[in-house]
Amino acid sequence: MQAEDDGVTTIVLNGNKAAVHTGGDGHVGTVTIQDDTGTDRVKIRPEAIVFFDKSGQIIIELNSGSGDIQFGATGARGQVTVNDGQGAPTIVLRGGDATIKLGAPGKGGFVRVDNDQGQEVIRLNGETANVLVGGGGTAADLYLFRDDGDISDTATATVYADGQNANLFLGGNGADGDLWLFPENVDRGATDFATFHADGQGGNLFVGGLGVDGDIWIFPEDAIQSDTGSASIHLNGGTGDIILQNADVAEDFDVQDAEALEPGTVVVIGDDTRLRASTQSYDRRVAGVVAGRADSADSAGSPRPGIILGRCASGQPRLPVALAGRVACRVDASTSPIVAGDLLTTSATPGHAMKAEDPARVHGAIIGKALRSQPAGTGLIPILVALQ
C-alpha cells in the first residue's frame, strides 16, 4: 500500500518485506503515536526519537544527531534502571537526586576505568570498599585543591599524593600543611584533642596529651616495630626519658692511621692534635678509647656509641672516641692481673690499657675503671670511661 502527496509517494507499507517506509523525495519521514486525547506521546523522526508525558513535555529523547539521551522533564524525575538476569536492579541512574547507584544485594558494585592501552588503572570495588588507582604502566597521583585553586594547574594543589615515589605533600599555595591524628572517642573537629599533630607552618611536632603518653620509637633496619624493646632510640613522653640502646658518649676526632685503630684501641693526643694509638705507659695525653663502629668486623665486642658529638665533614680521617660511659677496651694484663674495679691507664703495648699501680704517675693518665677481670695476657673487656 502506498500513500502519495501531489503524486509523490511518501508512505509505503510493504507486506512482503514487513517494512514501513515514510518520507523521501523532499519529505521528512515522521511517525507519531497519540493518546486518546490526541496528545503526541511518541514521535519518531530522522534526527530523534521523542517520548512525551501527558502535558506534552519531553521525558525521553534519543538524539541521533548528537548521540545524546535525555530523560525527565520539568517536575518529573528522569531515571534509568538496568536489571540483571533475575530482574534485580543492579545499575540505577536517578536524575531526581543526581545519583548513580551500582550493585544490589549479593552483587557488589564495581567501576573499572582503562587507559588507552586497555589496561585497568582505576577500580572502585563496592564489595570490598576499596579504591585502587594506578598500575598498568601508569603512576597514580591524587591532588586536592583549595576553593580558589585551578584544577588544570596541579602545582596549585595543597595536598599531593605521589604514587610513583610514595610521597605525600601537605600545604603550600597559601595553606598551612598539618597532619592531625585523633583517638577513637574524640570529635576530629576539636583539634585541641588530637594526640598527634605535625605543624607545617611552625615546623613543630606534638605527640601525646589528653591522658595519652606521647612516645617515639626509632628502630634499626633488622628490628620489627611490634618489639619496642628493640628500638635503638626511645623518647618516652610519660617519664620524660630519652632511652638509647647503645652505650657510650663519643666524639669524632681527626686520627692518624685510621685503618689500624680498631674499636677498643686506647688513643692519645698526637703532636699535630690528631689522635693516635697509645704507645707508652702512664701517658697523660690519653684522650679515650675508639668506640664501636658499624664498618668494623671487630665491633662485635664493642658497643656502638649512644651519642656521637662533633660529626662533621673533614679533610682528615675521623673516628668516634668514647669519652664517657661503657665501652670495650683493649687491655694487657701481662705485668699485673686486672680485676673488676681496677683503675686503668695506658700501657707500653700499643693501643692497650693496663692496671694503674703507681700512685705517683696516675694523675692525668687514668682512662677509666675495669668492669670485668682480665687475669693474664691481652684481651677486650668492658670498662667505664672516666678520664682523670
Rounded radius of gyration (Å): 42 Å
What helical percentage do the residues reach?
under 10%
Examine the coordinates and then state which fold CATH places here, giving the name of the CATH topology of the largest domain.
Answer: Virus Head Decoration Protein, Chain: A
In the CATH hierarchy, the architecture of the largest domain is Beta Barrel
pLDDT average, as an integer? 83
Q: Biggest sheet, open or closed, and with what strands and sense?
A: 10 strands, mixed
Say which CATH homologous superfamily of the largest domain is assigned: Head decoration protein D
Number of helices: 0
Total DSSP E strands: 34
Structure overview:
With 388 residues, the chain is an all-beta fold. The chain folds into six domains: 2-71, no CATH class; 78-136, no CATH class; 141-170, no CATH class; 178-207, no CATH class; 215-244, no CATH class; 249-386, Head decoration protein D (Virus Head Decoration Protein, Chain: A), CATH 2.40.300.10. The protein is built from no helices and 34 strands. A hairpin with a 4-residue loop joins strand 14 and strand 15. The N and C termini lie far apart (125 Å).
